[in-house]
Design a protein that fits this description.
CATH class of chain A: Alpha Beta
Helix content of chain B: 40-55%
Radius of gyration of chain A: 15 Å
Structural class of chain A: alpha/beta
CATH architecture of the largest domain in chain B: 3-Layer(aba) Sandwich
Distance between the termini of chain A: 30 Å
Shape of chain B: globular
CATH class of the largest domain in chain B: Alpha Beta
Helix content of chain A: 25-40%
Number of strands of chain A: 4
Low-confidence stretches of chain A: 1-11
Structural class of chain B: alpha/beta
CATH topology of chain A: Rossmann fold
Oligomer: heterodimer
Shape of chain A: globular
Number of domains of chain B: 3
Mean pLDDT of chain B: 90
Order of helices and strands of chain A: EHEHEHEH
Low-confidence stretches of chain B: 381-388
Number of domains of chain A: 1
CATH architecture of chain A: 3-Layer(aba) Sandwich
Radius of gyration of chain B: 21 Å
Chain lengths: ~160, ~400
């Protein structure tokens, strides 16, 4: 997924007014450096095709993803956010993914209070060997967000 | 934003640079490079907004305006220079910016907030009611600050209980947004206007004649700042704390005394901003022996932080000093009427601040205390029993 500087690409910091016609969801994926990001690499090396709606933000650990970062993604126009980390017990920093789990739980609660469908935020464990799972997760999440429609329009 | 005329607008040209404001100012005492007097002087000399990040330390608690002999409304000067300042030197957000982001999310037109999950059994609400209870951000704070205390939702619950005891079955708005208080005082007028319009639209659609707020920030924002953007409101805004005080004074609300010594911390929005001093004291005197702190009422010290920005170790020292002041009155607990004061003082006691004696002072919300002291089997003024 290449980034171009052409004016056609929607900018994440300027949410486009959502229109039902030709709308494509914007997805932000926080991938941990050691498992999920390597899983994405593997999906690429295996030529696994998956939905192109996603922007990956590489973080050193899913535990780095603060609640504010997830909410900032939504405020900046994301329609869905994924937090992808190592399987429990496999964290490179031993317990980082536990923190991620706690924070995602907190944000789920905040989203449902705000009237936003909590399924717009997904937490998934993907190891470096699971390129196929990575592709499948992205595809199914994109379909789910497409079914929910643009964020902030009559939830 | 143009800062021309800012000094004239807020009577700051009358400043004689006596420095009383700086002595009274909590932000100046917290430290850093902040002095109300000098900021006026800087604007006067340069005609520009001083590039000083410590302007974010100001809690807009109005202590400076209160003490000024010449009527300078300094906290309004601060409010008006912040839009400009946030472009040059943005505020440092605390708590990962989560409270501010929730405020922003709640301003999206299409979403329907669902904050009534706190309504528990035995609370009587009524969709056809003429009175509306504005809940504000407390349900969000319950999620964000659950690691500090687990009882924040008791504040809206107790508020409904108290209203029931006064014979009011409040309506609760389905799509209530954040009131926009923090956006207003941090100078994000665009966000504030959006929230104000959405809320006023929803309240007017609900067709109520009065809106009751337990949170002093919601109260002052709705009452004084919404008319600035939407014009005259079609409904009356009332403070629950004030209603309680009046009801206790008139004998319409009876509370069981508990006899403990307690002290009261005046929230700045309820006290200096709205001028409500005697009513909370009325409620507290009915249930306990009220011991006043040296800095109380008009000279009440602020809880140390506002709008969740630029909190630091020195803020915590200020809060601990205030808790120590409360302990020195001999009181066994401190009561406040603002959810933010409650969170800040709880945080100050939880945080491991080194090299200072840390007083243990339980902090309780006034509404929670009053609701826990309600006399059982109460009959409302209409003669109809609400607790059958």
């Amino acid at each position: 997924m290449g980034h171009t500087e052409s004016g056609d690409e929607p900018k994440m910091d300027q949410p486009q007014p959502p229109s039902a016609e030709g709308w494509q969801p914007h997805i932000v994926a926080f991938c941990c450096n050691w498992c999920a990001y390597a899983g994405a690499d593997l999906a690429g090396m295996n030529r696994r095709q998956y939905a192109p709606n996603m922007r990956i933000i590489r973080v050193m650990c899913s535990g780095r993803v603060a609640s504010g970062m997830i909410l900032q993604a939504f405020v900046s126009g994301a329609d869905g956010v994924m937090v992808l980390g190592c399987h429990p017990g496999d964290c490179h920093y031993r317990v980082g993914n536990k923190f991620a789990e706690q924070r995602v739980r907190q944000v789920h609660e905040l989203l449902s209070l705000a009237g936003i469908d909590p399924s717009r935020l997904l937490l998934q464990w993907i190891s470096a060997a699971e390129g196929e799972l990575f592709g499948r997760t992205v595809d199914s999440f994109v379909n789910q967000i497409k079914a929910l429609g643009p964020m902030g329009v009559d939830e | 934003m143009n800062i021309d005329g800012i000094l004239e607008r807020h009577a700051a040209t009358k400043c004689v640079e006596c420095g009383r404001c700086t002595y009274a100012c909590p932000a100046a005492q917290i430290g850093g490079d902040f002095s109300p007097r000098r900021i006026i002087e800087d604007i006067e000399n340069t005609g520009k907004v001083p590039a000083n990040k410590d302007i974010w330390l100001c809690m807009t608690c109005m202590q400076c305006t209160e003490i000024c002999q010449f009527g300078v409304r300094f906290h309004e000067v601060i409010r008006d220079i912040r839009p400009e300042l946030s472009r040059v030197l943005p505020a440092e957000e605390n708590h990962g910016g989560v409270p501010e982001l929730m405020e922003r999310l709640s301003s999206m037109r299409g979403i329907r907030p669902n904050k009534q999950t706190w309504v528990s059994e035995g609370l009587e609400t009524d969709l056809s009611s003429d009175s509306l209870l504005f809940v504000g951000c407390t349900p969000y704070y319950d999620v964000i600050f659950r690691y500090l205390r687990q009882d924040l939702l008791e504040i809206p619950r107790s508020s409904v209980r108290l209203l029931n005891a006064m014979g009011v079955r409040p309506k609760i708005l389905a799509d209530e947004r954040c009131c926009g208080h923090d956006a207003y005082w941090l100078g994000d007028m665009e966000l504030f206007e959006k929230l104000a319009r959405l809320n006023v639209e929803a309240i007017e659609k609900a067709g109520v004649s009065q809106v009751i707020a337990f949170c002093p920030e919601c109260y002052t924002t709705l009452k004084y700042h919404y008319p600035e953007v939407v014009g005259k409101l079609d409904f009356e805004v009332r403070s629950l704390t004030q209603m309680l005080g009046v009801a206790v004074e008139q004998g319409k609300l009876q509370l069981d005394p508990m006899g403990d010594d307690i002290t009261y911390h005046d929230p700045c929005r309820l006290g200096r901003h709205a001028g409500i001093y005697s009513e909370p004291r009325e409620v507290l005197s009915a249930v306990s022996n009220l011991k006043e702190m040296p800095r109380s009422a008009r000279m009440g010290a602020c809880c140390g932080n506002s709008s969740w920005v630029n909190c630091g170790p020195k803020t915590r020292l200020w809060q601990l000093e205030r808790l120590k002041e409360a302990a020195e009155t001999g009181a066994s607990g401190m009561i406040t009427a603002c959810p933010k004061c409650l969170i800040h003082f709880t945080c100050a006691q939880n945080e491991s601040v080194q090299l200072i004696e840390r007083p243990k002072m339980p902090v309780t919300d006034l509404h929670v205390l009053a609701a826990s002291r309600l006399k059982k089997g109460l009959v409302n003024p209409a003669g109809e029993s609400l607790h059958s």
